[in-house]
Amino acid sequence: MTVTHHVRVHRSEENLAREDQLAFAIAEVAADPVAALPEVVEMIINRVIDNAAVAAASLTRGPVTAARAQALDHPVSRGGHGATVFGEPDDVRTSPEWAAWANGVAVRELDYHDTFLAAEYSHPGDNIPPILAVAQHVGADGAALVRGIATGYEIQMDLVRAISLHRHKIDHVAHLGPSAAAGIGTLLGLDAGTVAQAVAQALHTTTATRQSRKGAISTWKAHAPAFAGKMAVEAVDRAMRGQTSPSPIYEGEDGVIAWMLDGTDAAYDVPLPAPGEPKRAILDSYTKEHSAEYQAQAWIDLARKLHGTHPELADPANVESIVLHTSHHTHYVIGSGANDPQKYDPAASRETLDHSIPYIFAVALQDGGWHHVDSYLPERAAREDTVALWHKITTAEDAEWTRRYHSDDPDEKAFGGRVEIRLTDGSTIVDEIAVADAHPLGARPFARADYIRKFRLLAEPVLEPAEIERFLALAERLPELTADEVRQLNIVARDGVLASVPSPKGLF
Questions:
Q1: What is the enclosing helix (H) or strand (E) of 6?
Q2: If phi over 0 gives left and psi between -120 and 50 gives alpha, with beta otherwise, what is residue 364?
Q3: CA distance 373 to 305
Q4: Distance CA 211, CA 220 (A)
Q5: pTM
Q6: For 77-116, how does the pLDDT look when each residue is reduced to its tens digit (9 = 90+)?
Q7: Are 432 and 418 in contact (CB under 8 A)?
């Protein structure tokens, strides 16, 4: 059962009561001590494993190395035990906000963890690093950690269902700051009033433009959600010290909705769990089999299929044109509708290629699959036959695929589309796909064994076999973990891995 919280802009003289503000409604959900459902606990375990998998694969990448170096240049704060940093031994700790930063970048760098798409876009697994960091710092047990993560997922996904940020070029992490603050509030057992202040402050400090995902996409793409997590930790700290926040942050006449979103006449209906109702939103999210933007997942699977059934398509000499008929988002954000020349540039950054469905479809069509490293290599992007095929691929918005993309019915919600391929001999090939193979409604839905296989695949180059088994055994017992075991919920790189990359120097 859900309760719909109606949100609109209020003039200052209307004096909207705190209890009627969205930040307080979010806080009441966080403060509700309802137990997590067994199926929710199982999915949280899956996502903890998934996050660790993609973090392991990114340990030596530049943004992650820089973020880790920043975190390790900050000592443990005096008020707790500190938190671990992915890759480092368990006894190497930093302050929780900096652990949230470093681990958040590691999780986000490869764009390879879970997703939820509705009115807005999100990677709700971004909630886990800040909540886990605080759990380690304060000595919370696994049961408390599970409840906190369930709240983080619930709040972010409920906001994503109702409030579009991208329409106004605001980055999607503006929903993550409040959700992570709420999840930390649940973890700590804070009262609704304190959580509401933290939620409002986290939102106020995490609104930024979407330029980080436009044009020549920079390394900040991985840092943005980690920054939101870091801000959430700091917001909770300030709220616990009695500090207050801009109010009402969503509904105020100079607030986020009035000036950053749909304006003074805007109204939204945000679905939130009723009092006593379990937080089950995580069950509606889905992870990635491939390291690419989520809207590319189904297209990679379709290209993989076509590679097997029509191997002649790998040769650009056989192809006149390829048009991907798809949703508004896919066309305008990662397709040719974005009008970003960088999406067709062989010298583009990995972050930019990750947001180019023409590039991704071309490589997957030629290779019959997708690799989180090899598919982005400069020499792969610059291959002459790939560039030729890539430049024959465009996207087009299709009203029906846009409708299905935004559908509230999970049985028809779709992230794919229809491909029309015209060959140089005059023949055509038409095929379509609605959801990725790994999606709950896909050809091969991800289950625990798939998450574990993904973890082993990505961790084997950087973790010792014993460390892989240790982490998996711990993660699968998540709700039963003691505080000491929660502090061991970390991945430790094998000797020499972290030392193989330079630790960049900065200000700290």
A1: strand 2-8
A2: alpha
A3: 21
A4: 10
A5: 0.91
A6: 999 999 999 999 999 999 999 999 999 999 999 989 999 9
A7: yes
Q: Cα-flanking dihedrals φ and ψ of residue 483, to 5°? A: -60, -40
Token pair, residue 391, equals 């430049």
Cα separations in angstroms, 191 against 55, 186, 195, 424: 33, 9, 6, 67
Taking only the tens place, the pLDDT of each residue in 413-470 is 999 999 999 999 999 999 999 999 999 899 999 999 999 999 999 999 999 999 999 9
Place of tokens 């940020």: 165
In the chain, the amino acid numbered 156 is: Q
Strand partners, 421: 322, 429
Give the DSSP letter of residue 119. S
CA angle 56, 118, 208 (to 5 degrees): 70
Bridge partners of 423, per DSSP, are 319
427 class by beta-carbon count within 10 Å (0-12 exposed, 13-18 middle, 19+ buried): exposed
SS3 340: coil
CA 459 to chain centre: 20
> Pick from 189, 188, 169, 159: which is nearest to 249 by CA?
159
DSSP secondary structure of 254-291? TSHHHHHSS-TT-EEEEEEEPTT----GGGG-B--SSS
Q: Determine the straight-line distance between the first and last CA of the chain, rounded to whole angstroms.
A: 49
461 is written with which tokens?
A: 């180059």
